[in-house]
Write a structure and sequence with these properties.
- By secondary structure, this protein is α/β, with parallel strands linked by helices.
- It is flat and about 85 Å long.
- It starts with a helix and ends with a strand.
Length: 367
Amino acid sequence: MKKCLCIIICLICSMWLAAASAQQVRVSGYGMSYDEAERDAMRNAIEQAVGTMVDSKTLVKNGMLLNDEIYKFSKGYINNYQVIDKRRSDNGLYEVIIFAAVDTNPNSKLMNELTRLGIINRQLRDPKIAVIIPEYHIRAKVPDPAGETAVIRKLTEAGFSRIIYAEGMRDTIKKLDYLTAQDMRSIADNLNVDILVVGEAFSEGVGDVGKFIGRGRNTGILSCSARLEAKIFIAKTGQIISANGAYGKAADVSELMAGKKALNNAGEKMGDYIVEKLLNYGSGNMQNIEVKVIATNYNKVDMINRALQNIHGVNSSVINSYNSGTAVINLKYSGTPQSIYNQLSQNVNCNLKLQQITYNTLTVTVY
């Protein structure tokens, strides 16, 4: 009975995790039968999800391509769905309403197909990342950090391809506890990266494994434990989206080798954690995006902010500051900065000039 209960709980958890990394949509479908209406609803679910990630001009330009390559295979991009209601209308058509979880994880089949077709810019899915994690075996510095290498390997395996080589920075950064947001911004600007993963790692010998396995004598195999701590820093907005620590243990005939293995094991755990955080951040429906508006007066800034609030997918838009003709607006949005600019261009009664666009920032001039 307990075994069955554990299996049920695991299934529920796996379903919840799948839903957490998906975009939830509620849509209707129509057809000459319930099956046809259900297929139409799934197509509409994909179409709605794609619409929140791709700007309207790109949707129109690639309409035929989306029909042939994406919408036709809609069921393959949905993690799960539930039929909420079904009925037959007065005109003889069948209607089915579903609640669907569309897989919009950055490494999902849907996102990979949209990238392959050139509909989504890979740079917005694949930020430029630097990983700097100096590490020490107590009383000795480790020359080739195993923990940092393990984190980078996990990021690469997850599909992040723009990892910046930052070996020369290890000796220049302060201890993690003393690193300020300004320090991290300076490092990120120096390396020209979107995301900075910075941390520190330590390993220490804990003795012969014989004392842990009850033999009462030395075995010649030495054991080490390690801890790796890291912070994930979004360069342009100065936001730390996560900070965490991971432990690792290992044994070897050499204490230094045991230490490196322990650091590697801690790095593996931290790498999995960082990948999950970045994937969730990159695919979330409420990403933090900073819009910088350069305008001659506050009225134009207010007009831009009101236009942002009316864009589909914007959950909130708040003017954070206005100084010397430059305003900073913080918003939560389900799409990309490029999509925001395209929609702003169509919905404001003024001229906009695009100054800069990055992973999660947009700078425009209003005139």
